[in-house]
Amino acid sequence: MNKSVCERIAYYTKKLAQRVRVHPAHRLPRAYTYRNERLQQYKKRLNELCKVEREQLYK
Question: How many CB atoms are located within 10 Å of the residue 47 CB?
Fold first, then answer.
């Protein structure tokens, strides 16, 4: 399944909002242990996809 960049951005913002919703003074749920690292990797890959798409549009 190939998602569009818009769908990927929507997914990223949804997951980021879930992560930010947890108050900093509270301990993170176990499922969030590596979420920050995964979100950073996803953001990096998303930026690469956006760059490729921009290059294709403006060729």
Answer: 10
